[in-house]
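$ fold --in a.seq
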Amino acid sequence: MLKKLGLLWVLFFSVLGFSQSKFVFPTNVKKDKISFKMVHNLVVIPVKVNGVQLNFLLDTGVNTTIIFSLSGIDSLALNNPKRVNLRGLGTGESIVAYSSTGNTVEVGKAINRNQRVNVVFDHTLNLSKRMGIPIHGILGYDFFKDFVVITKYTSKKLIFYLPEFFNYKKCRKCVELPLTFHNNKPYIPVRINDEAEKLFLLDSGSSDALWLFETGNLISENPKNYFEDYLGSGLSGSIFGKRSKINSVSLGKFSFHRSTVAFPDSIAFKNIDLFVNRKGSIGGEILKRFTVTIDYPSQKIVLRKNAHYKNKFHYNMSGLTVEHKGVEVVKEEKKVLLEKLSIPEDAVSIPMNTVYNYFLVPKYIVAEVTEDSPAYLAGIKKGDEIITLNGKKVYHFKLAELIEMFSSVEGKKITMKIRRGNKTFKKKFYLKERI
C-alpha cells in the first residue's frame, strides 16, 4: 500500500504523444487555491472529468493523465477511446488501456477542454484499498506545464498561478534548483553523501524519501545495514527491493541526515526505458518537509523549510502492510433514557431501554508481512483480518492512523486480535528499528 514508510505508487509511461491541450482560467482570474488531502505523504486533489467529481494523485513523476479506478462512480463518459498498451514499474507485463481524447478536466477554476486521458480497467490497479480513501487516477505533467504550482504541505493548500502573473519574492531561506526534463518528467540535482550532484526524478507520487538504482558501497553485509521488503505497486505489478538508511542527502544547502532509502530490484525495470542520467527518485517523505514551488515554464523548483523539516526518518517498524478490504455490518448497543419516575424518600428511578445501532465499518486485512519483522516473528500472516488494535476495535481507526502507529516509537507495544479463517488469535509484538 501507499504508506509513509515504504509503500508507494510510481508510474513510468511510454510517450504516447500529446495534443495541444491546455488548462486555462476564466477571464480575469490569475490564480486559484484549493485544499488537498495528504495521505502517506501524497497529495490527493479533487478533479472533475467530464463533469464527474473524482480524486486524483498529483504526481510530478507521470507524463500523462490516467484513470485506473471508477469504483463508486455511476457513470463516466470518455471520448474517442483508442486501445493502447502501457508499461510501468513492476514484475508483470504491459497492460491494456484506452487512450481517450477531447475530455474536459477541471481543477478548481482551471479547465482543460481537450485533455487526453488513459483509462485502465485492470481491477488489480486499485490504490483506494491501500490509501483508505477513493483514488481514481493520477494527474501530472498535463497540469504542471501550465502553471506555477505551490504545494503547502503543512496547511494542505495547493496554489497555482498563471506564469505571467507570478512574481518571486526574495527568500534568503529558500533553495532554488533547476529542472531538467526528459519525456516531460522533471529531474533535479541531488547530492548523496559527499559525491557530486546527480539527477534524480522529482517524484511527488512516491511516498518514500529516496530511491536509488545502484547500491554502490551503500549496502553492507557485515555489518548488515539493510532488509528486504515490499516497496509498493507499479503499473506492471509489485516492486520489491532493499531498504536502508543513508548518511546524507542534500538539495542545495538543505541536508538530511540518516534519511530512509530504497533500492528497487532491477527486475522491476524490465523493458523500461529509463533516462540514462537518472540515478534515482526524490519522493514525498522529503518533499513534505518544504513548501514547494514548482515552475515548469521557467524550469525551476524553489524549496522553503516548513514545520516538518526536522522530523526524523522512520520505517514501518511492525513489518505489516495493511489494506482496506471492503466493509461489514456492526451492531452496537446503546442504553437510552426513557423517563424519570419519582419514588418515596427522594430516590429517583431511571428506566433505560437498549437500542441497537447497525452501521457499516471498514475491514482491514494484512496485505504483506516482511520476513523477520516483529509482526512476522509474532506469527501474523498475510490475509489475517485485524479485529482489535491495542484493545480498541480496529474500525475506529483510519488506515492512515494505523500506518502512523506502526512507524511511531521504537519499543511501542502492539497488541492485536486477528481472525484467520474461523479462528481468532491474540498477538503481541514491539515496534523495532531494523537498521
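$ fold --in b.seq
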Amino acid sequence: MKLKMKFFLILAISSMCITNTWAEEIVGKWKAMDDRSGYARAKINIYKLTDGSYEGTIEEIYALPNQKEPYTDKCFRCKNELKDVPLIGMKILYGFKKNINKTDEYTDGKVIDPMSGNIYKGKMRLNTSGNRLNLRGYLGTSALGRSQTWVKIE
C-alpha cells in the first residue's frame, strides 16, 4: 500500500513540474510562417517580462524563395510612431498573458502585422510537443481574423 502511495505522490509531483515547464516553452526563437504563402517570413524572439507578460521582436526577415532580398526592411504601412520603423528589432507581439485556465494558451495580447501596418488583438496556443505555436490575430471577436502557425527553432 505504501508503494502505491509513493508512486501516486511521485506522479503528482512530476505532472506539476511538467506543467510548470510548459509555461516557458513559448520563450525562444520562432520561425514565423506566412499563412497565405506557406513560406518562412521572419525569425521572432519571444521573451517573458518581469510582470509575467510576453513580447516578441523580429530578429531576422527572410526573402521569398524567388527573391534575393526581403520585400521590405521597414514598416512602411504602419502608422504614427511605428511609421518606417526598421523591421529588425521591431516589437510585433506584446501584452500576452498566460491563461490560468488553459496551460497552453496565451491571451489578451496585441499583434502588429508589419505587411499591412495593422494592430490586432491576439491569442496564442502552444501544441502539446511545444514546437508549434498557433497565433491568431483578430478584430473584435476571434472569428474575424486569421491564424499563423510558427515553428520553434531555438
